[in-house]
Structure formats: C-alpha cells, structure tokens
Amino acid sequence: MSTWLAVVNEQAGGGGTTTARARRALEVAGVDHHLMAPRTRAVMTDAVAGAVADGQRHFVAVGGDGTVNALANDLLAHAWTQPPVLGVLPAGTGCDLIRTFGISQHMEEAATHLSRPGEYLIDVAIARGDWGHRFFLNVGEAGVAAAAVQRADRLPTWLGRARYPLGLALALPGFTRTRVEVESERRNFSGQALAVVFANGQFFGGGFNIAPKATLVDGLLDVQVITAKKWRAGTLVPRIYRGMHLADRDIRRFTARQVRIDTAEPWPVEIDGEYLGNTPVTVDVAPGRIALKI
User: Fold this and answer.
1) What is the pLDDT of residues 115-162, one digit of tens each?
2) Is there a contact between 68 and 86 (Cβ–Cβ < 8 Å)?
3) pLDDT tens string 254-294
4) pLDDT in tens, 236-255
5) Residues 257, 261, 267, 271: what is their CA dihedral angle, to the nearest 10 degrees?
C-alpha cells in the first residue's frame, strides 16, 4: 500500500479545522499517510521538493482548485521517470476538477477513493505570459470570466458557491468588451468578444459546466470564444451552468493543441481560479504528465 503525503490548505475549510478533519477522514478510510499544513507557499514548495528528493510519489491536495494547482506546479517543477500520483480531498467551497470524474465534494467520501485502485493519466495545460509559465489541470479563461474570479476572491468565503455568480454580476457592468485575436493550429478567430475559455476539464466556478465536451486525455484544449453582448449574459449564464450553451450563436468552440490570445484592451487571465496577469497569453498542452487518483 502506498503512503500518501497530504498537503493541507488550512484556510480552505475556515475556522482552522481542515487539518484535523483531513486526518480523521484519511484514518477512517484506512489511508496510510503523512500530513502537513504549510503556513506559506514557499514553505509548501520546499516541503514538496524535500519529499520528492526522498522518493515520495503519491500526494494529496486538501483544499480547492487553487490548492490542487499549487501542488501540481510544485510537482511538475521536478523531473519524473513516472508521473507523480495526485489525489484530491475537497475542502472549503469545493473543487471543480474532480467534478469531471464524479468524485464526491465531501471530504470524507472522497477520502475512500485513495484506498482503492485506479489512476488516470491526465494532460496538463501550460499558460505562458508576462508572468512566465504556469501549469494548470482544469480550466483557464481570459476576459469577463477572469474578472469575475478576481471579484469573487474579494468576497467573503461564507458565500460558498455563490461567490462566483456574484463576482460575475459585480464585474460585468464595468468590463470592456474588445477585439480579440485567437490563433491556433486548427482554427482562428478575429472579432469582438466578451471572454475566451481554454479548458482541460469540464467544470469551473463552483459547478458551471463550461466545457461539457472537454476531456483530460486527448492532448487538446477545449477553446470557446464567447462573443455575446453584455446584455445577453443574464440569459447565457444559466445555460452555461447546465452545459447547454455550446449551440448558442454567441459561442465559437473548437479544440487545439496550442492557442494564443491577444486583445486590443488588456484582459485579465486566470487558471484554476487563480489570477495570473493580463493578455496576451499562449496556452499549450503537455499530455499525460500527472496520474490523477480516481
């Protein structure tokens, strides 16, 4: 049986109880583990590097998509003869990545899958811009959806899954719809738009099924250019939540190994719920870099 290193974001659950809850969940599930709750991002990076140097291959992110993203980036900073194995225990408002695989949003239920066989070799996407490069596993966006993430991050955590819809409602009125140039090896787009989505997984924003046709094993990004006027957002958002938006006249969807996004006015860019900086951004795919525990 493998020993897992569980990396806890103590802030994810609120009230300073996430570490204790994760320990109980892992013990009840019979998962052999070590547990750490680093106080800073730098401490986490150093601790993961030390574990990798000691031969550790199985890791668990305890938190939301941002915690998963941070751990994935720390793991992918190292060379691997076999891809590292990454498990997820959702905490706080949850984790959209694992919705694609039907894993429970309840930590105690999710812990049970760590003691069962099953790994899924998944692609990793890479966003490149003025910030350098950043790996991500789930969904990235440029435009109003990224602006909504910025606003949602400033809202109180007790709002839970309502933070993103409220962030969107607050960001939309002042957002600038602008001319966008999207280039890929398969298809290009040039015109006015409200957002560009580049997805590896299916869900974002606390359950929005933004990319219902995306898969993490095809070596491709699921790209959507949203050309809607701002006044249409109120009717389009409920359809996006249900994954019923792809046939809409204001959605341009295609798949690509690499995509570059330039905008006439700077747009914010986010990946896995984490703000990176502004456009331009280039995104490509590295196939099969992580073994996700399912």
Assistant:
1) 888 899 999 999 999 999 999 999 999 999 999 989 888 888 778 788
2) yes
3) 999 999 999 999 999 999 999 999 999 999 999 999 999 98
4) 999 999 999 999 999 999 99
5) 10
| CA nearest neighbour of 259 among 126, 85, 95 | 126
pTM over 0.70: yes
Mean pLDDT along residues 185-200: 97
- Select from 162, 157, 167 the least CA-distant residue to 63: 157
Cα–Cα distance for residue pair 243/248, rounded to 1 Å? 11
- C-alpha 145/C-alpha 273 separation (Å) is 10
Any bridge partners for residue 84, and if so which?
none
Q: Which of 150, 143, 134, 239 is nearest to 197 (CA)?
A: 143
Compute CA 226 distance to the chain's CA centroid, rounded to the nearest angstrom: 19
CB atoms within 10 A of CB 230: 14
Would you tell me the crossing angle of helices 163-171 and 233-242 to the nearest 10 degrees? 150
DSSP state of 204: B
Strands (E), the chain: 4-8, 33-36, 58-63, 85-90, 119-129, 132-136, 139-143, 178-184, 189-193, 195-199, 221-226, 251-256, 258-263, 268-271, 274-278, 281-293
Q: For residue 208, give Cα distances in angstroms to 58, 164, 165, 239, 272.
A: 29, 10, 10, 9, 13
Predicted confidence band at 93 (pLDDT cuts at 50, 70, 90)?
confident
User: What are the chain's domains?
Assistant: 4-117 (3.40.50.10330), 129-287 (2.60.200.40)
- Can you read off the two tokens belonging to residue 43? 């401490």
